[in-house]
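INFO worker-7 received task bundle
INFO bundle size: 2
INFO processing item 0
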Amino acid sequence: MSTNVVSAREIKRDWQLVDAKNAVLGRLATDIAAVLMGKKKPNYVPYLDMGDNVVVVNAAKVKVTGNKATEKKYTRHSGYPGGLRVEKFDELIERKPEAIITHAVKGMLPKNKLGRAMIKKLHVFAGSDHPFKKMVEEKEETK
C-alpha cells in the first residue's frame, strides 16, 4: 500500500453559494473558511490550496449574538500618527457589509501565502444579485 499524494493538477474547484440571511456571523465564517481551505474534501492536504470558490449573498442581513451589534469594534490604522480608526459593527454593516464577512473569514484562514490565495476565492455581496450566477448554476446542473 502506498500513500496517495495529491498534486496541484488534480484539484477540481467547484462553486458554492452561501446565503447569509439571518445567519450568525461566526458560525457562517467557520463554514466558509472550511470550504475555502478544502477541508470538506476527502483528499484534503494542508499544504495545497484545495478549496472551492464561495459566493456569499445577502451579507447585509447577517446577525450577531448578544450585544455585539452595538459593542463589537473594527479597528484599522493608516500607519501615521493619530491614524487609528475605530468603527462599530452596526456602523460598518450600514456602510460596507461585505467587509464584515470578509474580515471574519480572513481571520480563520492561514496567515501565509496559502491563506492569501484562499481569500481570493471568496466573493461577498450585500444583496442577492451577483455576477457569478452562471458558474453557480453550472455546478448545480452537474449534480
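INFO item 0 finished
INFO processing item 1
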Amino acid sequence: MFILKRQDVEISSIQHPKRDQKIPILTYQGLTFRLISVFNANQEEQARALWRDLTDNQGKACVLLEEPDRYSIWGRVRLDQLAHETQENEATGSTTLMLTQACLLMLQAIYIDIEDLMGVKQAVTFQKDIADVFRQGRFPQTESLDAIKQLLTVNPLDSLQTPAWQEAHLTMLLRDLHRIGRNYFGKSPFIPRTLEALQDLPSGERSRFLAWMARSPDGNLWH
C-alpha cells in the first residue's frame, strides 16, 4: 500500500485491552496501522518480499516503513476494531489462540537455530519438512509457500491473523516438530533453547501452555 520513511509517520502505543502490554501503533494521514513484523537493516529484500506478498497476493492494506537501522511492516487496523477482536477472542477462542501462538514461537525458534547454525540451505530444507507436516495434517492457512514463510518469520504475538488451528493440529505439530528437531540437531540440547522462546509470552499464558503441553499425548517429549 505505502512505502514510507520515519518522518512521514507518527508512532505511538496504546494499552492492550486485555494484556499488560503496549501495542505499537503507526499513524499516517489519519489511518492507523499495527506492527506485523520487524527486519534488520540488512534484510531489505526479505522485508519487501513479505510486504509485496501481503499487499499484492493477500490484498491487505500494509505499510513498509524504512528506517536507517531497520525495516518494519504495519497492517491497517481500526482501534475500535482491535478492541472488539480482542474481546471476541477472549470469549470464543482465547485458549486456542494462545496455544497456537506458543507453538509458533517454538517453531520459529527451531527455524532460526537451523538457519543460524547450519545455513540457509538447511533452513530451506526445514521449510519443506514443515510444509509436509502441514499438508499431511491439513493445517488451515498453510496452503502456499508464502503463508508458511510468514508463519516462520512473523512474530505470532504481533501478527494480525493467527491461524485457525485446533488442538489436534497443535499436538501433531509438537510431535513432528520434536521429530524434525532430532533429525537436525541429533543429541544436541535443542529443547531448552526452543522452550526459551516461550519467555515472550506473558507469564500466566506461559504457565497455561506448559500445563497444556504436559497433558498432551506427546508433551513428555519436550521435558
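INFO item 1 finished
INFO post-check item 1: The first strand starts at residue 2 and ends at 5.
INFO post-check item 1: Strands lie at 2-5, 10-15, 22-28, 31-40, 62-67, 70-76.
INFO worker-7 idle
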